[in-house]
């Protein structure tokens, strides 16, 4: 992949050199340095988007070690660590980034995101408070909503979620988070509506399907919602619904749902079978 990028850069150089007027002096070293920058920028973008996250971590770690004062490489390392789900390391990397010259408010949002992923809610709030109020982005409001949720500041959480939804063309996951917040508060009807809204935006978002079943089960509605689902997803949702019924005290209904889950799954459904066996043994 890198060889292709280098070849492309040399072709661009060759074309650029041939286009110069006769007798025009060319600084070859300067041209090569510019090409190296172009090549490296393209490579950085590839590692941040389509490359394997752990390969990206290795690439940026090497590059940042060679030139530790390059904030773009330190930023790439932090982003790659989060993509690789190495959240504690990512939080440390983002802390290093925000301490460097040239750090931006967006870098502070990256740090707050990493702190939330490590359940460091107090420092996440402090980091968000340090972001200028003029930064009114989707990421900022999404993170503010999550922190307000963690602090059980429901009024602020709802306001931030609503603003975040209005700032993105892909609000499914935010709607799902908002719905889960309502679910934890015991506002099951509102939660159900938000999960349905999330699925209208992204019909493949399984966490929203599962949360929707939880919200319905909490209202003792033990039928699956009318949403697209695969056979495996149907079995998993029946399992969730069955356990919810048992938790509500509707044990016989829970057994029936668990039996249906076992029968529906295209393979052996160990978790549902084990739960059913425990209930029947009891």
Give the secondary structure arrangement, pairings included:
Elements: H1 2-18, H2 28-49, H3 53-66, H4 71-83, H5 87-98, H6 105-117, H7 121-129, H8 138-150, H9 154-166, H10 172-185, H11 188-201, H12 206-218, H13 231-247, H14 251-264, H15 270-281
Protein name: Tetratricopeptide repeat protein
Keywords: Signal
InterPro entries: TPR-like_helical_dom_sf (IPR011990), TPR_rpt (IPR019734)
Summarize this structure as a short list of keywords or feature phrases:
TPR_rpt; disordered N terminus; 282 residues; signal; Tetratricopeptide repeat protein; mainly alpha; TPR-like_helical_dom_sf
What number is the mean pLDDT?
Answer: 88
User: Biggest β-sheet, characterized?
Assistant: none
Structural class: mainly alpha
Parts with pLDDT < 50 across at least 5 consecutive residues: 1-38
N- to C-terminal distance:
60 Å
What is the element string, with H for helices and E for strands? HHHHHHHHHHHHHHH
Query: Any idea what the radius of gyration is?
Result: 26 Å
Helix content: over 70%
Taken from the alpha-carbon principal axes, the silhouette is elongated
DSSP E strands, number: 0
> Percent of residues in beta strands?
under 5%
What count of helical segments does DSSP give? 15
InterPro entries: TPR-like_helical_dom_sf, TPR_rpt
Protein name: Tetratricopeptide repeat protein
Keywords: Signal
């Amino acid at each position: 992949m890198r060889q292709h990028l280098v070849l492309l850069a040399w072709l661009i150089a060759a074309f650029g050199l041939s286009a110069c007027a006769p007798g025009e002096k060319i600084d070859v070293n300067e041209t090569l340095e510019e090409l190296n920058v172009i090549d490296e920028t393209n490579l950085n973008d590839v590692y941040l988007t389509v490359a394997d996250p752990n390969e990206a971590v290795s690439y940026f770690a090497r590059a940042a070690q060679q030139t530790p004062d390059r904030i773009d490489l330190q930023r790439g390392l932090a982003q790659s660590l989060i993509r690789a789900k190495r959240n504690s390391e990512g939080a440390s990397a983002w802390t290093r980034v925000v301490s460097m010259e040239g750090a931006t408010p967006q870098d502070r949002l990256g740090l707050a995101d990493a702190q939330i992923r490590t359940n460091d809610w107090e420092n996440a709030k402090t980091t968000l408070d340090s972001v200028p109020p003029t930064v009114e982005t989707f990421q900022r409001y999404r993170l503010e909503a999550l922190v307000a949720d963690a602090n059980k500041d429901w009024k602020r959480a709802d306001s931030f979620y609503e603003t975040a939804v209005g700032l993105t063309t892909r609000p499914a996951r935010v709607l799902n988070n908002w719905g889960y917040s309502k679910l934890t508060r015991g506002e099951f009807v509102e939660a159900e509506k938000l999960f349905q809204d999330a699925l209208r935006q992204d019909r493949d978002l399984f966490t929203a399907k599962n949360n929707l079943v939880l919200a319905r089960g909490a209202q003792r509605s033990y039928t699956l919602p009318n949403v697209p689902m695969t056979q495996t997803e149907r079995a998993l949702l029946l399992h969730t619904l069955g356990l919810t019924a048992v938790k509500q005290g509707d044990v016989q209904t829970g057994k029936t749902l668990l039996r249906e889950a076992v029968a529906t799954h295209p393979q052996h459904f160990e978790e549902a079978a084990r739960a059913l066996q425990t209930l029947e043994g009891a």
